[in-house]
């Protein structure tokens, strides 16, 4: 959905958009600008894409080389250079997603690479269907959108969707029970990795063109464990947000504290 002023409607519906080729130096420069002014705009020129989230990011189209996609041209990949306060965060995210992928979970396809000396994770969009040179959008909703939860309330501790709420939402949307199983595997994966940010906007639902509803592949997963020892005495700070999962499992959120008792309770509640 796009909101424009009335006098812009004609131009918007007329403009098919175009692909503007960009080279590695230009992409590197874009990453540099994002890192030096994280509060600045993520889009340039006539780009129209919009992506949620706290991290600086931009989106490009791969079609025999990288392109900026203007107007209504869809993008195919998301570039996230990483959160500066957390060292090597983009590499961390790439490794976590690759690890879960190797364990058989469906994850967004990522590469960790450099453009003109600037490193970034490049994430292939799973909400696209590609036929030759045509790229079609597939509708997705994250679980805040799907449960009418404001993004500011995305954490369960802030009235955001819980694991049980996500399971209920999948069932109400008539997703097959395999999707519920997949979600639970993601919940386990995030817990084992000590990934603290798996909130309602980091799980999504896909509405396929044939009407089927699926859980989207997992994305935006990074371990908090490398950053735990932040206080001077070398121990994790008591109130460190990285010590807990975003969603509780049978009433417990702290990493290392979820025991078989909590999993059994969660399994009973999720039946
Ligand atoms: N591979 C992907 N394909 C399609 N959409 C994605 C993909 N990865 C993320 N998104 C969408 O973009 C949003 C922001 O991406 P995310 O990686 O979560 O960034 P952040 O780290 O800023 O939260 C997500 O909430 C999701 O809706
Ligand atoms: Mg996110």
Could you describe the 3D structure shown?
By secondary structure, the chain is of the alpha+beta class. It folds into two domains: 6-130, no CATH class; 139-270, no CATH class. It has seven helices and 13 strands. The strands form four sheets. A six-stranded antiparallel beta sheet has the order 1-3-2-4-6-5. Strand 7 and strand 8 form a beta hairpin. The protein is globular. Residues 53, 201-202, 220 line the site of magnesium ion.
Portion in strands = 15-25%
Give the class from helix and strand content and strand pairing.
Answer: alpha+beta
Order of helices and strands: HEHEEEHEEEEEHHHEEEEH
- Low-pLDDT segments, ≥5 res: none
Mind describing the biggest β-sheet?
A: 6 strands, antiparallel
Ends apart, CA distance between termini: 36 Å
Could you tell me the mean pLDDT?
A: 91
The distinct ligands, each listed once, are: adenosine-5'-diphosphate, magnesium ion
Described by the principal axes of the CA atoms, the overall outline is globular
The total number of structural domains is 2
Helical coverage, percent range: 25-40%
**How big is the Rg?**
20 Å
In order across it, which strands form the biggest sheet? 1-3-2-4-6-5
**Tally of extended strands?**
13
Work out the helix count: 7
């Amino acid at each position: 959905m796009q909101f424009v002023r009335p006098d812009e409607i004609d131009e918007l519906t007329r403009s098919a958009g175009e692909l503007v080729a960009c080279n590695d130096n230009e992409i590197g420069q874009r990453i540099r600008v994002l890192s030096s002014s994280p509060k600045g705009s993520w889009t340039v020129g006539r780009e129209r894409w919009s992506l949620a989230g706290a991290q600086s990011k931009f989106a490009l189209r791969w079609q025999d080389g990288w392109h900026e996609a203007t107007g209504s041209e869809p993008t195919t990949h998301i570039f996230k250079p990483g959160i500066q306060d957390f060292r090597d965060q983009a590499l961390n995210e790439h490794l976590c997603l690759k690890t879960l992928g190797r364990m058989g979970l469906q994850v967004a396809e990522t590469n960790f690479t450099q453009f003109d000396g600037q490193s970034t994770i490049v994430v292939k969009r799973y909400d696209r269907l590609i036929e030759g040179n045509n790229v079609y959008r597939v509708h997705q909703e994250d679980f805040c959108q799907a449960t009418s939860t404001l993004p500011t309330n995305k954490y369960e501790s802030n009235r955001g969707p819980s694991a049980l709420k996500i399971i209920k939402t999948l069932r109400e949307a008539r997703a097959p029970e395999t999707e519920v199983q997949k979600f639970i595997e993601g919940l386990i994966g995030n817990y084992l990795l000590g990934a603290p940010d798996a909130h309602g906007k980091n799980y999504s639902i896909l509405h396929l063109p044939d009407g089927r509803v699926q859980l989207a592949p997992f994305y935006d997963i990074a371990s908090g464990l490398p950053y735990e020892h932040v206080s001077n005495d070398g121990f994790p700070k008591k109130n460190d947000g990285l010590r807990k999962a975003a969603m509780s499992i049978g009433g417990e959120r702290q990493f290392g504290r979820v025991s078989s008792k909590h999993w059994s309770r969660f399994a009973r509640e999720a039946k």
